[in-house]
Amino acid sequence: MSRLRRTLVLSAALLPSLAALPVRAQRTWRIVIIPKLVGIAYYDAVKTGIDAAAKELPDVAVTWTGPAQDQVERQIELIERLIPTRPDLIAVAANDPVEIAPVIEKAQKAGIHVISWDGDTNRREFFVNLVDFEAFGSQLVEAVAKEIGPKGDIAIVTTSFTAPNQTSWIDAMKRTIYAKYPGLRIVDVRPAGESTEEAHRIAQDYLASLPSLKAIVALGAPNLPGVARAVRDAGRVGKIAVVGNSTPNQMREFLKDGTVRSVLLWNAPDHGYLTVYSARQLLLGGMKAGQPFKAGTLGSFTPRQDATSLQVTLPVLVFTKDNVDQFRF
């Protein structure tokens, strides 16, 4: 038998055994995304972006789960239950950045990556921020000043005194007032949780008890419509400026009837979408300051260094009666 023929025979004999070798399966990353709470319109909108990103990425399996109340204790319990299941990454929107820190450290010691989104914590590897805190707080003040001028009393309805987004925005508002509008004065700040009805009740009390009030700033997507309804029901439209952040679907009627002139936000579905792509990037190859990564249809995002690690942000959107119908979330 010639050398060539022997080679061909041996090669043919090896084919069945080669075919029997297992094919290495593609790695699937398990990601768990935890919002501040589930069951409200805002986070339903965020989830549409999460679902869209997960559908585009076959190497990612995403679980969406969260508490029914915006309480950090419920988030802590949830993460405790998740740790033994060993997901690759947990992305959490912290209701309290301090209280949640020990359980995040516990997850990290178990080999689980942890990033924050929406609500920050200083125990994270990466932060998918909503918007730049300083810019957003400044724009809230500018929106108030545009309506009432450089002087007047402002009251604030926030979600809680521990929610990192809202506390950062309020601090930025105070700095902007100090630097540019010393005639503006924040006279009261009260928490409403994530409750439209509680925000409505607080706004009613403000209107009754603060005769010099010129504006109410409502922070938290469910809270702004409650404040707007209170001002409209009291017949104070045009006399009390209503400013804050919420979704276009919740604020459409108030923009169109003139109760509210502008609503600040970001694209909520985009935030969910970016969170999934950021989590995947961290798992695949990590993040570096100044080194852009591709986030699907949103294009490239460049992480920047902050006091804790790295973050990316979305641009601010401003909804008015003229553009609100362009957005459906």
Question: How would you describe this structure to a colleague?
Answer:
The strands form four sheets. Strands 2-1-3-4-5-14-13 form a seven-stranded mixed β-sheet. The protein has a four-stranded parallel β-sheet with strand order 7-6-8-9, with helices on both faces. The chain has a two-stranded antiparallel sheet with strand order 10-15. With 329 residues, it is an alpha/beta fold. The protein has helices spanning 3-20, 41-56, 72-82, 101-109, 133-148, 164-180, 196-209, 223-233, 248-256, 268-285; strands at 29-34, 60-64, 89-92, 113-117, 127-128, 152-158, 184-191, 213-218, 241-244, 263-265, 293-294, 300-301, 304-305, 310-312, 317-319. Mean pLDDT is 92; it is low at 1-24. It folds into two domains: 29-131 and 268-314, Response regulator (Rossmann fold, 3-Layer(aba) Sandwich), CATH 3.40.50.2300; 133-265, Response regulator (Rossmann fold, 3-Layer(aba) Sandwich). The radius of gyration is 25 Å and the shape is elongated.
